[in-house]
Amino acid sequence: xxxxxxxxxxxxxxxxxxxxxxxxxxxxxxxxxxxxxxxxxxxxxxxxxxxxxxxxxxxxxxxxxxxxxxxxxxxxxxxxxxxxxxxxxxxxxxxxxxxxxxxxxxxxxxxxxxxxxxxxxx
Length: 122
Prior knowledge:
The protein is mainly α. It has two domains: about 15-75, Winged helix-like DNA-binding domain superfamily/Winged helix DNA-binding domain (Arc Repressor Mutant, subunit A, Orthogonal Bundle); about 80-120. It has helices at about 15-25, 40-45, 50-60, 80-105, 110-120; strands at about 65-70, 75. β1 (about 65-70) and β2 (about 75) form a beta hairpin. It is elongated.
């Protein structure tokens, strides 16, 4: 699992950690019941505080993506993966729709957007 933290990003570090773990889950890099690094180990690896890492793990647990066994660790929980993927896809499509509407409002034509999308998908 490769998580990259940007110390200059507007996005809080705990959200960047969450996003990195979610990405690894969605891409199949992390499997069901696989143990995540300990809070302290991940904090050390990413050069962030243990509190930041703990916050990310707690948020992921609230979303149903991980579970914690006291004294054992935090593990991936994929029983709701399909539901979460659909929700994630809907959120992304909503963002694309908002961006397209904003482009239309500012006079950017459809062909230019089509070109950009084709370039991204190459």
